[in-house]
Every structure is written in C-alpha cells, then in structure tokens.
Specification:
By secondary structure, the chain is α+β, with helices and mostly antiparallel strands. It has one domain: Immunoglobulin-like (Sandwich). It is 17% helix and 37% strand. It contains 2 helices and 10 strands. The chain has helices at residues 2-18, 30-38; strands spanning 40-46, 49-58, 71-79, 87-90, 93-94, 97-101, 119-125, 133-139, 144-145, 148-151. A 6-stranded antiparallel β-sheet has the order 6-7-3-2-1-9, with no helix packed on it. It has a 4-stranded antiparallel β-sheet with strand order 5-4-8-10, with no helix packed on it.
C-alpha cells in the first residue's frame, strides 16, 4: 500500500519540476534567453598557443524585424597582443561595416558577462540568401579563431 501511494507522489513531483523552462527561474528577458541559446565562443590561436578569445552573438534570430537588412553580429574580442588589424569573416567574406563599441552598450546586456579588457564590435555582413549555415571566423596577421557555425532561419 505504501508503494502504491509513493509512486504517484514521485511521478507528480517530477512532472511538476519538468513542466517549466529553466529560464523561468531566472530574471531575464526573452531577448536574453534567446541570446543564451545562440552565443558561441572560440579560442584564437597562433600555431599551438592561445592568444585570445572571441565571443560571438548572431543578432538576427533575436529580433528578425529589427535586424533584417544585413547579417548582424555582436562580438567581444580579447587578444593578448593588441593587434591593429583583425579581419571578421562570414562565409569567407569580410564585414561590410565594423563599429567599435564602448564596453557598456545596447548589446552588452545580452551577454552574461563582458570583460572590461575586451573590445566590442557590431558587425554587418551582406544578407546570405539561400545559405542555411553561416560560418563566422576571425583572422589577424598570424592568428585565427576556429570557425563558429550559426543556423540561419529562412
């Protein structure tokens, strides 16, 4: 009889715990929840050495009405050596526009953490019609990141 009553109690407990999204337990906006699903990071390497870190957020899926003319990316970049020239590539092509942003900006709230020593960029690339996967990469004179893949909603 105890077992008979215990089983429905345990099932009800597990069902109640799994009925909500994990994000419902945190005080975050819908945009922040979407950004957590999309954000990617990569190490920047020079030969075998790690020389930096890049965190990339594809903005189009967060608000498709607001970000519709281009492929928009928000990037935080840290390099040990202060490189003067860094190329941002999407499917092998450079960004058409790159804006250096202050540490506190409209996009920094979408990331869980933005280090003070990072450089922040808003990047615009031409629309990639007909391509379902976007391949993002950073290159400098002697270093590069791994390719990050973002699914493009058609």
């Amino acid at each position: 009889m105890k077992t008979f009553l215990l089983i429905p109690l345990v099932v009800t407990l597990f069902q109640a715990c799994s009925s909500q999204s994990a994000f419902s337990h945190f005080d975050i906006t819908q945009e922040q929840a979407k950004s957590e699903e999309i954000i990617q990071s990569s190490k920047i390497t020079q030969k075998q050495d790690i020389v930096g870190v890049v965190t990339t957020l594809y903005l189009n899926p967060i608000d498709s009405e607001k970000y519709e003319k281009y492929e928009y990316f928000y990037v935080t970049l840290y390099l040990k050596k202060n490189e003067k020239y860094v190329k941002f590539l999407l499917n092998g092509e450079e960004a058409t526009e790159s804006k250096l942003l202050p540490n506190k900006n409209n996009f920094s709230k979408l990331l869980h953490e933005t280090p003070l020593w990072s450089k922040n960029y808003l990047l615009l690339f031409p629309k990639r019609e007909g391509e379902s996967v976007l391949r993002f990469k950073i290159e400098s004179k002697d270093a590069s990141s791994q390719e990050m893949h973002f699914n493009r909603d058609e």
